[in-house]
Amino acid sequence: MRCHSFSPALAALVASSAKVAAGLNITNGDPDTLSLAVKQLSNGVMSIYSDNRDVDGAGIFPKPYYWWESGVAWDTLVNYWYLTGDTSNNAATQAALAQQAGEDDDYLPTNQTLHEMNDDQATWALAAMTAAERGFPVPADQTPWEEMARTVFDSLAARWDTSNCGGGLRWSIFSFNAGYEYKNAISQAMFFQLAARLARFTGNQTYIDWAARTYDWSRSSGLIGEHFAVYDGTSVSDNCTRLDHTQWSYTAASFAYGSAILANIVSSPNGRILPLEIIASIIPLPVSPPFSSLRQTTLTHILDSR
């Protein structure tokens, strides 16, 4: 993902969403107005896509949107279908998730080689995971969504790099792309989230073990700091001894989401309170009295809301 600076694509998306949102009419307590507003937003997303689907192939939104942002859009549209029952976008969503999976169902299509990073691949895997969790229809003769997500997980696990810095995923998959020397937090966070969601979906202990391994390395490398702030990344060029202390909310959110899932399926991986620690890192309450008790109450409520 290209998030070392605020993405022009995200800026464009925010601007266009603001224009659409300004025209929405939502009445508090009226589900019909909410449904209509959500429909307008989904139509806006699809109008951007429809202008490009015959140019770059199924699943790709036009520039300035990055490949990974296309994956986020389809993930959202799966949830849109699940929550509203509106099937009007299903055919396009199915085609997108299928075509971008590539020949090996691993979300490494050959036409995106210059854009494929570990976090980008994981983004598409999480979209497939959402489809599996939501029961999104699988077209005939197509690989099940969950199997695609597992294939990506296996490819990410195979790239776990113990030769440099004792572990972690590099940002770039291929050595010829920028970022190959960088180990960024979002790659670890999305791998962690994918492992947690697969653990819940399959009941396989292996995924829990990988989630714990990823979390442990993220802590020991300093990507997750002393007070659980999540930092952007570190470089193998200096053996991961220096950090880029930039913080991105979506990175902490990905760790938090995976942690909340783990909290629902295992009380304490390897004897630690991993879910509590990560969730605590994004709750904006001071840790000192008298707020510490309020913070603990909030955490307990989150973990007990199953």
Automatic annotation (TrEMBL):
The keyword Glycoprotein applies. InterPro entries: 6-hairpin_glycosidase_sf (IPR008928), Glyco_hydro_76 (IPR005198), Mannan-1_6-alpha_mannosidase (IPR014480). One of its GO terms (molecular function) is mannan endo-1,6-alpha-mannosidase activity. Its EC number is 3.2.1.101. Keywords: Glycoprotein, Glycosidase, Hydrolase, Signal. Pfam families: Glyco_hydro_76. Residues 1-22 form the signal peptide. GO terms for biological process: carbohydrate catabolic process; fungal-type cell wall biogenesis. This is mannan endo-1,6-alpha-mannosidase. The lineage of its organism: Eukaryota, Fungi, Dikarya, Ascomycota, Pezizomycotina.
